[in-house]
Amino acid sequence: MKVIIRDNADGASQYAARYIINRINSFQPTPEKPFVLGLPTGSSPELIYKNLVQAHKAGEISFANVVTFNMDEYVGLPEDHPESYHSFMYKHLFAHIDIHPANVHILDGNAPDLAAECAAYEQKIAQAGGIDLFLGGIGPDGHIAFNEPGSSLRSRTRVKTLAEDTIRANSRFFGGDLSQVPKQALTVGVQTVMDAREVVLIVLGANKAVALAKTVEGSVSQLWTASALQMHEHATIVCDDAATDEMLVKTVKYFKSIEQVSLEQEMVQATSEHRSHTNVDNWRGALKDLRIDTDKKQAEQEDGELTPDSMSSRLVDSAIGLNDKKTDDLMFDRMGSRVSTFAA
Ligand SMILES: N[C@@H]1[C@@H](O)[C@H](O)[C@@H](COP(=O)(O)O)O[C@@H]1O
């Protein structure tokens, strides 16, 4: 698992959007071999969609040969309800890009036979050749799509009853009125996400900090379903600084240093192999985003003194009980404490 940390939501969203654009463009999709993209809703991906729309308008990306599958949809909410995920996707993305409507797939939460709708959705994904990249978000209780705590990590697309935490969290889209929030949803399963060739999660804000720490540092657990991504071969989490508040300082430093070293390596390779100034400038720009003094680091590297923050040093500290948290809150892992934590 890779964790990419940016100062704020803007930086994280720009990174994620650029990542998706690069993936689609390098795939060179055609009508016969389209790029299959899994998509989420919620506030977290909004800025990514804004960036994708801007890039499309600037001629940097076409979605003409992209097929999409959304993660989830509420049960019983009319498609044209402003808070349906159908409305959300058209409002934030589909209405502004060149995607063919026939290539858009969103679960029908009003289907007469919901189980059949879910089974057909899995079939459609398989027929499309599987998902190349699944973009996702997480809920404050660590759910991915609508796979609430306790969901099987092998689950597939199905009807799911929403947890109280999620109903409360999503009530902000329904005027704060809990009674207006649908209590069930159709959702892809954890295994459906895990089957994607690549998964990218966007995690923003301090209210996701516990969930992110559990996802990255905790054990793989049905109680924090996003933690299943630890078992994925190609998972990237893109987050803002606030979302890292509950992670160990050393974990944060570790992932930052890994990104720094890999960017520097790519820059060194680009310099020696291609002598491409454009590429070097791009990498220098990326390093600037990380607020790294590239000249200093290059000098260090030439001296052979580049030392990434090593995971082994974490072990020593853990062993003697000196793990330093960014906050000194003691978070007990009880369902009861989760509810009050998220309500706050
Ligand atoms: N089913 C969606 C999830 O797919 C999403 O990740 C989560 C977080 O939403 P937000 O980004 O608004 O916090 O909300 C809903 O529960």
UniProtKB/TrEMBL annotation:
A GO term, aspect molecular function: glucosamine-6-phosphate deaminase activity
Assigned keywords, A-Z: Carbohydrate metabolism, Hydrolase
Record's catalysed reaction(s): alpha-D-glucosamine 6-phosphate + H2O = beta-D-fructose 6-phosphate + NH4(+)
Keyword Hydrolase: yes
Gene Ontology cellular-component terms listed: cytosol
Coiled coil segments of this chain: none
Transmembrane spans: none
Top-level EC class: hydrolase
Pfam families: Glucosamine_iso
The protein's Enzyme Commission number: 3.5.99.6
Superkingdom, natural source: Eukaryota
CDD domains: GlcN6P_deaminase
BP GO terms, sorted: carbohydrate metabolic process; glucosamine catabolic process; N-acetylglucosamine catabolic process; N-acetylneuraminate catabolic process
UniProt xrefs under InterPro entries: Glc/Gal-6P_isomerase, Glucosamine6P_isomerase, Glucosamine6P_isomerase_CS, NagB/RpiA_transferase-like
Described function: Catalyzes the reversible conversion of alpha-D-glucosamine 6-phosphate (GlcN-6P) into beta-D-fructose 6-phosphate (Fru-6P) and ammonium ion, a regulatory reaction step in de novo uridine diphosphate-N-acetyl-alpha-D-glucosamine (UDP-GlcNAc) biosynthesis via hexosamine pathway.
Protein family per UniProt: Belongs to the glucosamine/galactosamine-6-phosphate isomerase family.
Protein name per the record: Glucosamine-6-phosphate isomerase
Source organism per UniProt: Capronia coronata CBS 617.96
